[in-house]
Amino acid sequence: MNMELRLLNLFCIVAAVLFLAFIVVNAITSASVGELLSTDNLFITVVCLLMALIFAVNPLLYLKSEGKLPIPFIKTTSASTAQVSGSKTPALLDAKGRAVPPDVRAIVSQMGQAKTKDA
Fold this sequence. Notes:
Elements: H1 2-33, H2 39-66, H3 102-112
Helix pairs in contact: 1-2
């Protein structure tokens, strides 16, 4: 599975680079003729940019899921940094990794306590 994933990502990167190279070749050849901003050249440029984006999305999402692509302006929280101040137990985290609000934490702690029966 890993080899197929690498091959797919390599194919997508090569295709994206080829589309970007075609844009550069199109710009150079049409600049010599003087028709750089014609409707046909702009259409080809936009289509090639869209195709390059489509092929580049898969490798970028793979790098993001592996944690190798840093996303700027987004804080990452881990269980060690999301501890409640003053307590030694780690904070409860929801499905997205965010800290649970205090009222929900109190309800969960009450649910976790065993009820004793009077004999």
